[in-house]
Design a protein that fits this description.
CATH architecture: 2-Layer Sandwich
Shape: globular
Strand order of the largest sheet: 1-2-3-4
Helix content: 25-40%
Largest sheet: 4 strands, antiparallel
Distance between the termini: 88 Å
Structural class: alpha+beta
């Protein structure tokens, strides 16, 4: 019986040494820089079509729309969401990549596609 008491005491003392797991780091999203994206930010689908021509893809969901424009230089994804009380969807986020899927400068992609 004495051995059980010693064993239990040893386990209890070891358990007290175990610290709580470190807190999980929280991810803070950084605001997207819009420098060089003035031609597309806040624009609606009609304005984008006048600027770039017909999109190669047009994805629609209830509260979102994604227009994709492409050239040999880059692929530009423009994400549109409804703003204010109106149902007009406008660009609030922009993503750009090359044919290999690597990120490219968004402003340069906008300029390349607008010049076609």
């Amino acid at each position: 019986m004495l051995r059980k008491g010693i064993t239990f005491g040893a386990l209890a003392s070891v358990a007290g040494c175990v610290s709580a797991p470190p807190p999980t780091p929280t991810t803070v999203s950084q605001p997207m820089s819009v420098a060089g994206l003035e031609r597309v930010m806040g624009r609606n689908a009609d304005q984008l079509t006048r600027l770039f021509g017909e999109p190669v893809q047009d994805f629609r969901e209830d509260n979102a729309r994604k227009l994709q424009f492409a050239s040999s230089r880059c692929v530009l994804d423009l994400y549109l969401y409804p703003q204010g009380s109106g149902r007009d969807f406008i660009v609030t986020y922009v993503d750009a990549r090359n044919a290999a899927g690597e990120d490219v400068d968004r402003a340069s992609c906008v300029e390349a596609l607008a010049r076609r």
